[in-house]
Amino acid sequence: MLEKVKVTTKEIDELVAIIKEVWPEAFVPIIGQEQVDYMLATYQSKEQIEKEIAEGVQYFLLKKQGQTVGYTAYEIIDSKIYLSKLYLLHQVRGQGLTTAIFHWYEQLAKEQGITEIYLRVNQGNTQAIAVYKHQGFELVGELVSDIGQGFQMVDYKMKKILA
């Protein structure tokens, strides 16, 4: 059973701790340690997360048997769910948790009359791309963003239309 705990100011330190654990294992092989360090400091710092929450981004800790095993975040933009974050520790991947998370997002969308979920994924993250395709997402475009310090995010945009 996967528990989703909404992050408030009281859970931010726990969220930052799981981010610092999961991001290097997910991204160092794809974009390198230097860019990971920059992105963590710039986009996943405690201050940035507090700002995003204040602006309406919903963060959730993902827990299995009381242990934090990942996190997810979303916001509603133009009547669509933008799934901005979904990360699981490597030791819990392949246990059906991603499917449970996507079922939760689809239920959330239906409850709010939303018919589309979209996300960005690094073009080098072939494992995540395969998972998203398996969950019914399709590639709909490429996005290249300069993020400072000479770094770029080179992503695919993927979406899923809900029936």
List keywords for this structure.
single chain; 7-stranded mixed beta sheet; alpha+beta; Aminopeptidase; globular
Q: What does this protein look like?
A:
This protein has 5 helices and 7 strands. With 163 residues, the chain is an alpha+beta fold. It has a 7-stranded mixed beta sheet with strand order 1-2-3-4-5-7-6, with helices on both faces. Helix 1 runs antiparallel to helix 2. It is globular and about 40 Å long. InterPro entries: Acyl_CoA_acyltransferase (IPR016181), GNAT_dom (IPR000182), N-term/lysine_N-AcTrnsfr (IPR051556).
Question: CATH top level?
Answer: Alpha Beta
CATH architecture: 3-Layer(aba) Sandwich
Q: Give the number of domains.
A: 1
In which range does the helix fraction lie? 25-40%
Would you tell me the structural class of the helices and strands?
A: alpha+beta
Low-confidence stretches: none
* DSSP summary, beta strand count: 7
Strand content: 35-45%
Assembly form of the protein:
single chain
Average predicted confidence as pLDDT: 97
InterPro entries: Acyl_CoA_acyltransferase (IPR016181), GNAT_dom (IPR000182), N-term/lysine_N-AcTrnsfr (IPR051556)
Protein name: Acetyltransferase
GO molecular function, one term: acyltransferase activity, transferring groups other than amino-acyl groups
Keywords: Acyltransferase, Transferase
Summarize the structure.
This is Acetyltransferase. With 163 residues, the protein is α+β, with helices and mostly antiparallel strands. It is 39% helix and 37% strand.
Could you give the topology of this structure?
Elements: E1 2-6, H1 12-31, H2 33-43, H3 46-54, E2 58-64, E3 67-77, E4 80-88, H4 97-111, E5 116-122, H5 126-134, E6 138-148, E7 151-161
Parallel strand pairs: 4-5
Antiparallel strand pairs: 1-2, 2-3, 3-4, 5-7, 6-7
